[in-house]
Predict the 3D structure of the following.
Amino acid sequence: MRQFKLLAASILGAGLLTAPIHAAAQTPPAQPSAPAVDPAALKALETMSAYLRTLNAFEMKADVVADDVTDEGRKLQIGSTITYQVRKPNQFTIDTVSDRKVRKLYYDGKQITLFAPKVGFYAQAPAPPTIRETLDVLHDQYDIEVPLEDLFRWGEPGDNRDQLTRGFYVGPARIGGIETDQYAYSTGDVDWQVWIERGDKPVPRKIVITSLFDETDPQFAATMSWNTAPGLKDADFTFAPPPNATSIKFATATTTATK
C-alpha cells in the first residue's frame, strides 16, 4: 500500500510543478468519494465462492510460507505444503507437511482422525454428517484451525463480510503461468489479498494474509494449484492405522485453554 501512495504523490507533485500558477488557486469541484469496499471487489469474492460450492470433488495443493514470531519478537519463516482432497458432502483429507511436523486429518463421514506419522500417534472422535458441521466441531471442540478454511466459507451465513473495512481491485497478475486478478481487503486488524483465476474457473490461486495486531506484521502466504475433476475413492478418506501406531485421545478446547 505504501508504494502506491508514494507513486500517487510523485505523479501529483509533478503535475503541480508544471501547472500554471493561477491554476493552483482554483478550488476543484468536490468529487464523490469511492466506497471503502468496492462492490466489484465484493462481487469477485462472491463469484469465487459460488464456483467453489459447485465443485462436488477437488484436490488442492498449497505451497505455504508463514512467519512464526518468537518470544523475542523475531520473525522466522516456515515453509509447508498443504494438500486437500475433498468429496462432498461428507469426506475430506488434509495433509500438512513441513520440516518440523507432518499431520494428516481424515473425515470419512462418520469420524475424524488426526494422525502424526512421524511419532506414530493418532486420535479419533465421532463427527457430524457434513463437512461444514465437522469444521465447526474441529474449531469449537478441539481448537483445530483448518488451513485456508475461510476460502470455503465465503458466501455462507457468518462469512464476516460485515467486518470488511476496505476492498479494492489491484490489477492483473500471472501466478504460475495462470492469468489472475488481484484484490486486496482489510478486516480490522488483518489485511489480506487474493489472486483469482480469470475465466470460467475462478479459483483462488494465491492468498496473502498480514496480521496487524502484532507489531512485526507477520504474514501467511499460499500459492495454490487445483484439480477440479479428481478420481477420488472411499479408501482415500479412510484411516487404517499402521502397525505400532498408538491411539490417544483428542485434547478438547477446554483442556487446552486451562493448561
